[in-house]
Amino acid sequence: MKIRVVSSRNEILSLNPNEKVVHLAFRPSNKDVFLLVETCPKLEVIQLPKSYRRTISRAIEMFLEMQKVQLLEGDVWGHRKDINEYYTIPPSLISKIRSMKAEGTSVEKIAEKVAQESKLNPMMVSYILSKRDPE
Q1: How deeply is 96 buried, as exposed, middle or buried, from its count of CB atoms within 10 A (0-12, 13-18, 19+)?
Q2: Weakly modelled stretches of the chain, pLDDT under 70
Q3: Rounded to whole angstroms, how far apart are CA atoms 16 and 5?
Q4: Does one domain contain both 57 and 77?
Q5: How far apart are CA 135 and CA 130, in angstroms?
Q6: CB burial of residue 133 (10 Å; 0-12, 13-18, 19+)
Q7: Cα dihedral 82, 79, 49, 127 sign
């Protein structure tokens, strides 16, 4: 599964319209969020660092809710945008999540355990669990 890392508002218009998961590495304005949703109609998740997440207006939260776009808190630790524009969640981690789910482990326990072992936010783990086939 790949997360598209966007480090400046100038990149929004050049995004692939098929992007589903985007991490914004800058503090977005309301206009930036509207433009992102318009540019990527298949968008499912916007991930923001914790400090930026707290500054998102209630109006944008409601807008994203209406568009069925999840707003998650999290980071892409150790990712270098100059090397690759995507942060890739290792397939081994996704298969571990799937096997824990197949064993009947609760979503909360899986999210907690995987978040401790990896650098993924529990909310992102829950999102992965909700997807039938994460790419």
Answers
A1: middle
A2: 77-83, 132-135
A3: 12
A4: yes
A5: 13
A6: exposed
A7: positive
Residues 44/71, Cβ–Cβ less than 8 Å: no
pTM of full prediction above 0.85: no
Please state the domain count of the chain: 2
Residues spanned by the domain of 110: 90-135
Quick one: how far is CA 71 from the chain centroid?
A: 8
Q: What is 19-83 written as a DSSP string?
A: --EEEE-S---HHHHHHHHHH-TT--EEEE-HHHHTT--HHHHHHHHHTT-EEEE---TT--TTT
H-helix or E-strand spanning residue 113 = helix 107-117
